[in-house]
Write a structure and sequence with these properties.
Layout: H1 3-23, H2 30-45, H3 52-55, H4 64-81, H5 95-104, H6 109-129, H7 134-212, H8 217-232, E1 234-242, E2 247-254, E3 257-264, H9 271-278, E4 283-285, H10 287-292, E5 307-314, E6 317-327, H11 332-374, H12 383-397, H13 402-414, H14 424-427, H15 435-442, H16 444-452, H17 462-467, H18 488-502, H19 514-523, H20 531-543
Antiparallel strand pairs: 1-2, 1-6, 2-3, 4-5, 5-6
Length: about 550
């Protein structure tokens, strides 16, 4: 217990005893009592300056508190001794040092010594005063001292018990706090891992959506590079592809766009080539490690502080690599995420490459079928390609999407495939056709549909082949349906087919001039042809007059 706190108890007690003695007129020199109070307070405040470390091992517990008790009692005895007509009531002042000492001690056995000291001083004081009924008064005073001592001991025991409970509670709270801190740290670690996992899953989900799009390979590269750059905050992001062991194709993301570069094939002993394309190892290299292999970095001469390199696997092994340099927050964990992403990227690129090869083969097949028509009709040579070229331009101007343009492309190339079933003498006849001959000509859309109906990937183009001669007024062939009931692509093909027929030489006439072609289209708007398509075509021809006469594409 601190000296300041002990004064809260000893000072009021001292004042009560002092006022009682003064009231009973038993103190002649009150100044001496005040001097005692001053000295007592000064000594209490300076208690910590005493050499307690020297006295702590004394068998009589001669600690500063015990010395303070002896000092207080001695000082009181001297004051009483020098007082005029002192009374035995002054012995009650010994309660002041006793109270203070009792609050300072924490061991019960110390109270025995304090009671012995106080008893000796009380006995000596009463013997010095020598009042009447000496032993009776001594007994009463000692009884009061003893009773007060027991009361203080009881309070002290109660305080010690509360203090111990508080200490235990503090220990429990401290333990609980430490445990809470430990759990908090664990929770922070788990939360951080969960955040990283969530971020990784979110990034993988975004990448899956990007890779799922059916877009050209160059557009896919742009999306992949942009995604990697924004996700990992890498200053340099590359896609590197092995071009049949004769060189490398390098795609980099610079200034929000894709930059392509051709690289010569590196030496076969190049460390990065061996690691990525031969051993198929995923790499994470720090700046110090990169210094060892600086001469082996064949795709760039820029300064690299850290590097992630992950191979891309295809059907025939490693065909490329994802390269990220100067990543803002680099760590080995990023390598695991990139490996998962690289797996999806490799599969997607292989899928689009395979699809592109199939599409190229399909287109070659279609063109071979179209060429078979030209072998029979020399006047229609290049007609299908010219019509397709113009139809795709008008279709794009009128807002057809990529899928619709692809169907239009197939339909345009094959729209006259049915003429294979029309005799050559009818196709090349310079005179006016008879009714029977024209009927055979009008059957070519039906024949064409029958030819391609067994080819699965061309089924979506059948309306272009069967219905490109239908009219807006329903007077066309072979089904006499109104053209506005057909897809816009079919109406575009119909107009472009008619324009190319008018602007080309035929067995029965020479090619019409551009102005006559325009006039003929305008005269048949809203009857034979879609007026919107004609307007778009005329605007295009006015803007690009050199497009006529058409050239083979």
């Amino acid at each position: 217990m601190s000296s300041d706190r002990s004064l809260y108890f000893t000072l009021p007690l001292f004042l009560v005893v002092y006022l009682l003695a003064a009231h009973l007129n038993i103190i002649r020199f009150n100044l001496l009592i005040l001097i005692f109070l001053v000295f007592y307070i000064i000594f209490s405040c300076q208690q910590k300056l005493l050499p307690s470390s020297i006295l702590q091992n004394n068998s009589f517990y001669l600690q500063p508190e015990f010395l303070h008790l002896v000092f207080g009692c001695t000082l009181l005895f001297l004051i009483i001794k020098t007082s005029n007509e002192p009374s035995h009531y002054l012995t009650l002042f010994y309660l002041v040092p006793l109270t203070r000492y009792s609050f300072y001690t924490e061991k019960n056995k110390k109270n025995l010594w304090s009671f012995v000291i106080i008893s000796l001083f009380v006995t000596g004081t009463i013997l010095y005063i020598n009042p009447e009924n000496l032993f009776f008064i001594l007994l009463i005073d000692l009884s009061i001292i003893l009773g007060f001592s027991l009361l203080i001991n009881h309070e002290q025991t109660h305080l010690n018990k509360n203090r111990q409970e508080i200490i235990k509670s503090q220990a429990k709270l401290s333990c609980a706090y430490d445990q809470l801190q430990t759990n908090t740290q664990k929770l922070e670690v788990v939360t951080e891992k969960l955040d990283r996992t969530t971020t990784s899953l979110f990034a993988l989900n975004n990448l899956t959506q990007i890779l799922g799009a059916n877009i050209p390979l160059e557009s896919l590269f742009a999306r992949i590079l942009s995604f990697l750059y924004n996700t990992f905050h890498s200053q340099k992001t590359w896609l590197l592809f092995n071009a049949d062991n004769i060189g490398f194709q390098l795609y980099s993301w610079e200034d929000e766009k894709v930059v392509w570069k051709w690289l010569e094939f590196p030496h076969r002993k190049n460390w990065f080539f061996l690691s990525l394309f031969e051993a198929a190892h995923s790499l994470f290299l720090t700046e110090s490690q990169l210094r060892e292999f600086k001469g082996h970095i064949f795709w760039t001469e820029e300064n690299i502080r850290n590097l992630y390199a992950i191979p891309l696997f295809g059907n025939n092994g490693v065909f490329g690599a994802v390269l990220l340099a100067n990543v803002k927050e680099s760590s080995p964990e990023v390598l695991d995420i990139l490996q998962s992403m690289a797996c999806q990227i490799g599969i997607s690129i292989e899928r689009i490459r395979t699809y592109a090869e199939l599409e190229s083969n399909y287109l070659a097949t279609i063109k071979a079928l179209a060429t078979s028509i030209e072998a029979k009709d020399r006047y229609t040579r290049g007609h299908s390609e010219r019509v397709t070229h113009l139809a795709l331009i008008i279709g794009e101007l009128m807002g057809l999407n990529n899928q619709e343009l692809k169907i239009l492309k197939y339909g345009g190339i094959l729209h006259d495939i049915g003429k294979i079933g029309v005799p050559e003498h009818i196709l090349n006849k310079p005179q006016t056709l008879t009714t029977d001959e024209f009927t055979k000509i009008k059957n070519h859309p039906i024949i064409g549909e029958e030819i391609i109906s067994s080819i699965v990937f061309l089924k979506t183009s059948t309306p272009y082949i069967r219905s490109h001669h239908e009219r807006l007024d329903g007077q066309g062939y072979p089904d006499q349906i109104k053209a506005n009931q057909l897809p816009l692509g079919v109406r575009i093909l119909s107009v472009c087919d008619a324009f190319d027929a008018m602007s080309s030489d035929r067995p029965y006439r020479k090619a019409l001039s551009l102005e006559k072609c325009k006039l003929e289209l305008q005269l048949n708007a809203n009857t034979q042809f879609d007026a919107g398509v004609i307007n778009t075509l005329l605007k295009f021809l006015n803007k690009y007059p050199d497009f006529y006469p058409q050239k083979k594409i």
